[in-house]
């Protein structure tokens, strides 16, 4: 896994209507006449939202820009099912037609057009043989399976001519390993019994009934990440790290391999993390991102271009957040498209290769994700959402961003008016400006005061943005319906505000960033909106860390919810799958500075806690092992502090099963109601 993912941010794994309308300013919407599956038109229950919300995940615009393929995911909770089913839908870019392309009990995802636009490929495990590549004529007909690989396809990419497809796949178990497993002799030697991802290629023959003849291109002790085809299809460039696992991202390099097999040649190694290589349209240059030999967990990536003829390279201009995610070259080769966190938004930008300043393409309220461009770069598609618009497909000209909304996949979903929401700004104790989404109580009346929930994001380089209030990812509309303000601060250390801001809590977890958050609550109290006697704190991952550590430093919170939280920085370092994470943030190994690690750990300050605390933790979490939750739970029990701990079987760092998501949100609401709910005060 590449570092250019928000590693500590909680993420959950989770169509149809025609016509188009321009994106306007975000306003609450009503749907009093709509009915839902449960026949309940009043209450935003966790069960209702999880079971009825449909999420649009990504777009793939056709080469000619006329059609957009996109994915839609929805929960399955009937009987013994508790998962998400994803299928591919189609919509014309003028909004005149829309339909569901794939169906069945197995998900279909990762759609890609063939370069000539004739076929659409996707991945699916519908034959229970791992994720394989399938193909379909988007005009209609049955899909057919293209690959029968021994393992499960991770990512794939069409060649520029459309004659071949390359894909990456983690090495499947050998026959000997399978035999050892059957005989119960399958011991695991840590850091030695490894399975690496490598590149494979096959010729595309749509009319051929037999499965593709797959040829392996790379092998050895390195783990492949992103890859790209050269314009002439003769070479594949890829980034790779020495071992699988998130811990090894600081040693990522870039190499090439002939597409018809041959020797691997390393071409870029700047001493840190060099990633996401992309060939220029003429094949003379290579774009990539790099930390320039200074890998740090808070993250900073710059855009470079390498001259493939002489091997020289140069850094392009600065981006807004110094964390660019490369997308593709512009067809004329004069700029490179990339996406980046942009305060409370996610936007598309273009960086010129001549050294000029970047150009912002997407604009306006909300967030733009799942972006794609057509072959000549004139038209773009994306998934857009804001506080009051659910995720849907938009399309626009690239040169003049005027987005048209093409879909309404959650038509009939909204029960009542959505809560008021806005982005507010305040100054922290040292003058640093802090920005935050603020969700109002659904029944808000000016002059009354209401309880507030401080909702802390993960990362700590995560960021809370202008996301739809009634999605199944966070109980924002539910808390609003219960009469709470929800404050979601982007404190120092958050992404989206530049490198200096992102590094501002290095060696300072729980101190400056907590003061940022407290200042936000105080700002609302001073405005006469929040009852200072009814404050709760909650969060997941780093947010769980803060929910545990904050209550060792202040008694202002009447309730706390610790989700998958770090509570002991020393034991976390020795048991997580990223043992270098905390030493990097705290600029020392724990044995080099015990006092620093103890000072910032809830468990070493636990005697100061008086706040009732609910602890939620996935049982299969290797990022923040469940022992972190148990350490806090057992300490609070011995201190006679009111506490409860709930664990979720089979779940990794995020909760993936929708029935567990319902349970988790119900418990969060019940816990806050128990300690914060009472008649509103003030007139």
TrEMBL record:
<feature type="region of interest" description="Disordered">
    <location>
        <begin position="164"/>
        <end position="185"/>
    </location>
</feature>
<dbReference type="InterPro" id="IPR011042">
    <property type="entry name" value="6-blade_b-propeller_TolB-like"/>
</dbReference>
<dbReference type="InterPro" id="IPR011659">
    <property type="entry name" value="WD40"/>
</dbReference>
<feature type="compositionally biased region" description="Basic and acidic residues">
    <location>
        <begin position="31"/>
        <end position="45"/>
    </location>
</feature>
<dbReference type="InterPro" id="IPR029058">
    <property type="entry name" value="AB_hydrolase_fold"/>
</dbReference>
<dbReference type="GO" id="GO:0004252">
    <property type="term" value="F:serine-type endopeptidase activity"/>
</dbReference>
<feature type="domain" description="Peptidase S9 prolyl oligopeptidase catalytic">
    <location>
        <begin position="476"/>
        <end position="678"/>
    </location>
</feature>
<dbReference type="InterPro" id="IPR001375">
    <property type="entry name" value="Peptidase_S9_cat"/>
</dbReference>
<dbReference type="Pfam" id="PF07676">
    <property type="entry name" value="PD40"/>
</dbReference>
<protein>
    <submittedName>
        <fullName>S9 family peptidase</fullName>
    </submittedName>
</protein>
<feature type="signal peptide">
    <location>
        <begin position="1"/>
        <end position="24"/>
    </location>
</feature>
<keyword id="KW-0720">Serine protease</keyword>
<dbReference type="Pfam" id="PF00326">
    <property type="entry name" value="Peptidase_S9"/>
</dbReference>
<keyword id="KW-0645">Protease</keyword>
<keyword id="KW-0732">Signal</keyword>
<dbReference type="GO" id="GO:0006508">
    <property type="term" value="P:proteolysis"/>
</dbReference>
<feature type="region of interest" description="Disordered">
    <location>
        <begin position="22"/>
        <end position="45"/>
    </location>
</feature>
<keyword id="KW-0378">Hydrolase</keyword>
